[in-house]
Design brief:
about 240 residues, alpha/beta, Potassium Channel Kv1.1, Chain A, 2 domains, 4-stranded mixed sheet, about 15% strand
Length: about 240
C-alpha cells in the first residue's frame, strides 16, 4: 500500500512553512548548541540569517531535530549577543567579522569595521599592500621557493629584494647583478607609493606568511663580497623553520 505524501517521513529535510515554527528555536551551529527565539534570528530582515528562517525552510536538521548551520559554532554566540542586545563583541573580532559577513548582518558589519582591528586591517594595511605590485603573488612565490629547498633540511631560506622607489629599483638591479646566486630565486617587492617604510613591508610579509601556518624570521642579507652598494640596503633573508 502506498503512503500518501502527507504521511511520508520527513527525514533530515524540514518541510512546511516556518510560520508554523515554534517561537523557540534550537540550533546546532557547527556542533555548538544554541536556543533562541525566531524573532531574534529574524531581527534584521535583510540579512542572510533572517532569510534562513523566513518562508520555506532552507536548513536541514540534525538527529535531534535542531536546525543545523554548517559554520564555526564558537563565534555564533557573539552574533546572538548582538541580535539580543546590540552588544558589539570585543573579543575574536576578526573571526566574528567573518561570521557577520557570512550572515550578512549589515549593522554589525559596519560597527565591526569601525573597530581598531578591522579598520586598521581594511583601511590601513590592505590599502597599503594593494599599492605594492604583485604582493600576494610574491608571498606565494616565497613559499614555493622555501618548500622546494626544504628537502632533508630543518630550515630553508629565501632572499627578497625590497625597493621603496623607482631609483632604488635601478640600484637594486645593479646590486643584484653582483650577487653570487641564482637571480631567479630572489623575490622582488616594490616599488610603491605610500607612506609605510621598508620595515613596515617586512613586518607585513612576516605576518602574512605566518598566517598561512609557517614559522619564519628575517634579517638583512649581507653579501660575502664587496659591492658598490650595501647589499642590506635592499636584500633580506627570510628563514623558514620546518621542525
Amino acid at each position: 500500500m502506498s503512503i500518501s505524501s502527507e504521511h511520508k517521513p520527513l527525514g533530515k529535510q524540514v518541510t512546511g512553512s516556518l510560520h508554523m515554527l515554534s517561537p523557540i528555536v534550537e540550533l546546532n551551529v557547527g556542533g555548538e548548541m544554541y536556543t533562541t527565539t525566531l524573532s531574534t534570528l529574524k531581527k534584521h530582515p535583510g540579512s542572510k540569517l533572517a532569510e534562513m528562517f523566513t518562508g520555506q525552510p532552507k536548513l536541514r536538521t540534525d538527529s535531534e531535530g535542531r536546525f543545523f548551520i554548517d559554520r564555526p559554532g564558537t563565534y555564533f554566540k557573539y552574533i546572538l549577543e548582538y541580535l539580543r542586545s546590540n552588544q558589539v563583541p570585543t573579543q575574536c573580532i576578526q573571526d566574528v567579522y567573518k561570521e557577520a559577513l557570512f550572515y550578512d548582518i549589515e549593522p554589525l558589519i559596519k560597527q565591526l569595521e569601525d573597530s581598531p582591528q578591522i579598520f586598521g586591517e581594511l583601511v590601513a594595511r590592505r590599502q597599503f599592500l594593494a599599492r605594492v605590485p604583485n604582493y600576494s603573488e610574491n608571498i606565494e612565490l616565497m613559499i614555493r621557493i622555501a618548500r622546494a629547498e626544504a628537502v632533508a633540511s630543518r630550515q630553508s631560506s629565501v632572499i627578497i629584494c625590497v625597493v621603496r622607489t623607482e631609483e632604488d629599483a635601478a640600484r637594486c638591479q645593479d646590486a643584484l647583478n653582483g650577487l653570487d646566486m641564482d637571480k631567479k630565486s630572489v623575490v622582488k617587492f616594490g616599488p610603491w607609493k605610500a607612506v609605510p617604510s621598508i620595515s613596515d613591508l617586512l613586518d607585513c610579509i612576516q605576518m602574512d606568511v605566518e598566517a598561512k601556518g609557517y614559522k619564519i624570521s628575517f634579517q638583512p642579507h649581507v653579501a660575502e663580497k664587496g659591492f658598490r652598494f650595501k647589499s642590506h640596503d635592499f636584500f633580506y633573508k627570510f628563514l623558514f623553520t620546518w621542525w
